[in-house]
Design a protein that fits this description.
Rossmann fold; five-stranded parallel β-sheet; three-stranded antiparallel β-sheet; 9 helices; 8 strands; globular
């Protein structure tokens, strides 16, 4: 099964992707994670990407498409995959179509997780990450026992630059302008499925897995 998860930053794509990975054993391909790793390592790609990410802007297509194309050709993607955070523009979707055609494959389903802007801001701005072990907390939904301190290792908790409110709102604006047209793009192809992302995690998971089970027949 070749899947795409759509939704604004903070809509819960990563969380739901992990449930799909557990259920079907196909890899999750998160361009955000790959780009952040490149930034952390200070690679040439990372240096280019950082300029855009720190301002809440989309990383240029040529950088992202190159990463995705290389990844989809790896052996663990032969039985299917979940794309999380890609495509984000019509140009990327068309590039993905070409990549898939070259491989003799197609996208089976596009799941759009819909969440309003204010809820997105609440989710992301309150996120904190441990500098030492990488554990993730949420000041409202999953706060640490001691403010600013990781429960697991005692490390310092910090807010990522791209989790600041002004950056989050900029990212949402970019998403709405550039990515929203993808919904129409995939709806016309008959592979789009809408899911209400404001529901609790378990309900969203149940709805998505129900869609995928029907697709499997």
């Amino acid at each position: 099964m070749n899947l795409i998860l759509l939704g604004a930053p903070g809509a819960g794509k990563g969380t739901q992707a992990k449930f799909i990975v557990e259920k079907y054993g196909i890899p999750q391909i998160s361009t955000g994670d790959m780009l952040r790793e490149a930034v952390a390592k200070g690679t040439e790609l990372g240096k280019k990407a950082k300029e855009f990410m720190s301002q809440g802007k989309l990383v240029p297509d040529e950088i992202v498409i190159g990463i995705v194309k290389e990844r989809l050709r790896q052996k663990d993607c032969e039985g299917g995959f979940i794309l999380d955070g890609f495509p984000r523009t019509i140009a990327q979707a068309e590039a993905l179509d070409r990549i898939m055609a070259e491989m003799g494959r197609k996208i089976d389903a596009v799941i759009n997780i819909s969440v309003p802007e204010e809820e997105i801001v609440r989710r992301i701005v309150n996120r904190r990450i441990c500098r030492k072990c990488g554990a993730i907390y949420h000041l409202i939904y999953d706060p640490p026992k001691r403010p600013g301190i990781c429960d697991k290792c005692g490390g310092e908790l910090y807010q990522r630059d791209d989790d600041r409110e002004e950056v989050v709102r900029q990212r949402f604006a970019v998403y709405r302008k550039s990515t929203q047209p993808l919904i129409d793009y995939y709806r016309k192809r008959g592979v789009l499925y809408e899911v209400d992302g404001t529901k609790d995690i378990v309900s969203v998971k149940s709805e998505i897995l129900s869609i995928l089970e029907k697709l499997k027949g």
